[in-house]
């Protein structure tokens, strides 16, 4: 199976902070998932890495949490690293966050792991990962890194979880985006014109509609569908979501046209998407 990592940040300042010894390290704190527009403190590099396996080593770390109910009666599995102090109220806030953003019944399929940056680096096969997705599993940092609130990372990764559970036949929704959104954004015409490259995690990364969809979902979440006051740092400006595009995403989420056929289309295997910076350690 082929999984991908994306979203690179060059964060020299953060790296310097992490490498300067301190007398007493500040205790880690699990943040509540507050929806605020991110303020990026590093330059974004459109470079990616392709890997051949899903997030691993989950059993190598200790977790607390479990399955939480959300207000609409659904449930979501939230597991939090024991590196964070156990705060059940904040864990419930994370569950309510996922229950409160636009979603369908794919929510109950998600397994969410929240961990500090160094543990995320190992889980996501990268010294630079702020989060990743693969095999119905979301991994995200639980505290702000490089100006990126953890809720923004989680929203991006949940966008990929949605795509993994939607059918855009004959195309792969993970690479092309969901059906109504892709139609509204004219993805087929863009591909034909050479201005969109589905699934390209290399030189044409900024023109990858799979990334544009996940980022647009993040904007839908952060702006409550208004598309006002958001950052757009990693994808080509030509993919900036219009109100119609955000409305199309909401429709694809709440009223899906079909489920991804994982059994009959090998391209539909969930891929791993990651927010990245340059301040971790080498993963095994």
Secondary-structure map with pairings?
Blueprint: E1 3-5, E2 8-10, H1 12-19, E3 43-45, E4 49-51, E5 63-69, E6 75-81, H2 88-100, E7 111-115, H3 117-123, E8 131-134, E9 137-141, H4 150-164, H5 173-176, H6 179-184, H7 187-193, H8 209-223, H9 243-254
Helix pairs in contact: 4-8, 8-9
Quick rundown:
This protein is of the alpha/beta class. It is 31% helix and 14% strand. Strand 5 (63-69) and strand 6 (75-81) form a beta hairpin.
What does this structure look like?
It is built from nine helices and nine strands. The protein has helices spanning 12-19, 88-100, 117-123, 150-164, 173-176, 179-184, 187-193, 209-223, 243-254, and strands at residues 3-5, 8-10, 43-45, 49-51, 63-69, 75-81, 111-115, 131-134, 137-141. Strand 5 and strand 6 (75-81) form a beta hairpin. The longest helix is centred in the middle third of the chain and has 15 residues, at 150-164. It is globular and about 50 Å long.
């Amino acid at each position: 199976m082929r999984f991908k990592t994306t979203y690179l940040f060059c964060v020299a300042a953060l790296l310097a902070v992490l490498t300067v010894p301190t007398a007493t390290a500040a205790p880690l704190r699990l943040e509540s998932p507050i929806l605020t527009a991110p303020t990026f403190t590093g330059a974004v590099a459109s470079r990616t890495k392709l890997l051949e396996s899903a997030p691993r080593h989950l059993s190598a770390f200790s977790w607390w949490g479990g399955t939480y109910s959300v207000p609409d009666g659904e449930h979501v599995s939230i597991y939090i690293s024991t590196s964070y102090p156990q705060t059940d109220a904040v864990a419930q806030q994370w569950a309510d966050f996922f229950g409160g953003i636009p979603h369908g019944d794919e929510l109950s399929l998600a397994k969410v792991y929240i961990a500090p940056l160094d543990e995320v680096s190992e889980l996501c096969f990268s010294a630079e990962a702020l989060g990743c997705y693969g095999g119905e599993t979301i991994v995200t940092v639980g505290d702000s890194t490089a100006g990126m609130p953890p809720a923004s990372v989680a929203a991006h990764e949940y966008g990929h979880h949605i795509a993994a559970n939607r059918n855009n036949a004959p195309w792969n929704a993970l690479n092309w985006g969901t059906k109504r959104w892709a139609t509204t954004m004219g993805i087929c015409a863009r591909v034909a014109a050479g201005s969109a490259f589905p699934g390209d995690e290399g030189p044409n990364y900024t023109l990858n509609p799979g990334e544009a969809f996940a980022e647009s979902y993040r904007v839908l979440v952060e702006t409550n569908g208004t598309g006002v006051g958001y950052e757009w740092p990693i994808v080509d400006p030509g993919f900036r979501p219009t109100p119609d595009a955000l409305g199309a995403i909401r429709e694809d989420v709440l009223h899906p046209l079909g489920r991804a056929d994982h059994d009959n289309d090998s391209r539909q295997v969930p891929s791993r998407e990651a927010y990245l910076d340059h301040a971790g350690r080498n993963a095994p």
